[in-house]
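Reviewer 2 asked us to include a model.

Predict the structure of this chain.
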Amino acid sequence: MKADEKPRTLLTSGLFKISRNPVYLGIFLILIGESILLGSLTPFLLSLVFIIVISISVIPLEESNLEKKFGKKYLDYKKKVRKWI
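Predicted model (structure tokens):
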């Protein structure tokens, strides 16, 4: 699903019980792991850029769409589950 698409279902189980953004968190952790394996600062900086860009441009749009679609149900979920971990 693209960031600007309308959501069809609100996932609140599995990893979504722990984090509202487990996919982005997983990608970030993979990037950090790769930077450790490579022993280089450049991949680490790229992973920080990734998380900043996602936090500023993608997640707010997705959360806005979820709020419009699911209303109070999403707001209640948002209160219970942290954005990252």
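The chain has a mean pLDDT of 92. Helices lie at 22-38, 41-70, 72-80. We have added this to the supplementary material.
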